[in-house]
Structures are given as C-alpha cells and as structure tokens.
Amino acid sequence: CPAEIFVGDTLCYFAGMTFAVVGIIGHFSKTMLLFFIPQIINFLLSVPQLFHFIPCPRHRLPRLDPELNKLNPSEVEFKKSDLKLLGWLMLRFFSMTKFIRYREYTNNDGERLISTTNFTIINTVLCWFGPLHEETLSRILILIQIVLGSLLTFFIRYYLVKFFYDS
C-alpha cells in the first residue's frame, strides 16, 4: 500500500530544494525544469483554487469509498452567486477540457449551487479513469511522472536540443 511508505512533507520539500540547487549550481536549470512537467501541470491546474477564483477547501485529496475501497475525486460545493466572471470562465474551460467535473443544482432553499471536483492532477486522473484503488492510482501517477517527467525530458534534451538550448 503506497500510504504505508509516505515519507512526509519535510522530505518532499528537502528533495525538491535539493533538485533545484543541483540544477542551478550545475547550470542545467532548463533540463531540471523539464523533469518537473507534471508538477508544473498540477500547479497550472490548481491556479483557479489557489488564487481563490473558485473556492478552495482545506483538503483537496481524493476521498475514500470504504465499501469499494476505492478513491473518488474530492469535491467542493459553493453558491453560484459567489462565483465571479473569471472563476466561471475557468470552471467552464477546465470542464470542457475534461480536467474536472462539475454540476449545477438547486438546494431546498432555492439557491443555485455548484459542485465541482477539486483542481488537482490526482482528481483529474480519477475523473478520467473513474474510482480507483490507491495502488492503481499511484501507478498511474508514477507512469505520468515517468512519461512526462523523464522520457519527454530526455527526448527534448537529446533529440530536440537545437530547438530548446543555445548550444
């Protein structure tokens, strides 16, 4: 089970800083940045909630369905009237591109509400593939990291070098 070996935030922060320092001091910051493509995608996907264009709950991790032992995308619910134009445009864009799911409905008080999945790469994978066991979800995320973070980086660095690098 992947959760049994999670090393915690401190090691993750330390490892990220180590990569950054090595890339900067070693003068290969562009190559190092390419390794972080999935993390950059996750940040760009999270921007609407991080900058409060769309309400951001305290926890955005998937929720467990104990009966099926599978993870479902977490959701945030808010009044439609609380959403500004830019937030509405972002919600529509990410919904049309299938990065999130959202629905509008009316509650018992007659208020229009919106429920949307949270804007993270983990929830996006769950939107694409449906409820998944934690091990399967972890394997898909590792595969994304390998394909987008490593293979694409090496392909750009060694085969498309003349388009991205000076020398």
Descriptive keywords:
167 residues; alpha+beta; 3-stranded antiparallel sheet; two-stranded antiparallel ribbon; metal ion binding; magnesium; transmembrane helix; glycosyltransferase
Task: Give your account of this protein's structure.
The model has no long low-confidence stretch (mean pLDDT 91). The radius of gyration is 19 Å and the shape is globular. The protein has 167 residues and is α+β, with helices and mostly antiparallel strands. Helix 1 (9-25) runs antiparallel to helix 2. 12% of the residues are buried. The chain starts with 8 loop residues before the first helix and ends with a helix. Strand 4 (102-106) and strand 5 form a beta hairpin. 53% of the residues lie in helices and 13% in strands. The protein has one domain (36-164). The protein is built from 7 helices and 5 strands, in the order αααβββαββααα.
Describe the structure in brief.
This protein is 53% helix and 13% strand.
How would a crystallographer describe the biggest sheet? 3 strands, antiparallel
Number of domains: 1
Q: Radius of gyration, Cα only, in angstroms?
A: 19 Å
The SS-based structural class is alpha+beta
What is the helical fraction, as a range of percent?
40-55%
* Strand order in the largest sheet: 3-5-4
InterPro entries: GPT
GO cellular component, one term: membrane
Subcellular location: Endomembrane system
Membrane topology: Multi-pass membrane protein
Blueprint of the fold:
Elements: H1 9-25, H2 29-35, H3 37-50, E1 63-65, E2 70-72, E3 75-79, H4 85-96, E4 102-106, E5 112-117, H5 121-129, H6 134-159, H7 161-164
Antiparallel strand pairs: 1-2, 3-5, 4-5
Helix pairs in contact: 1-2
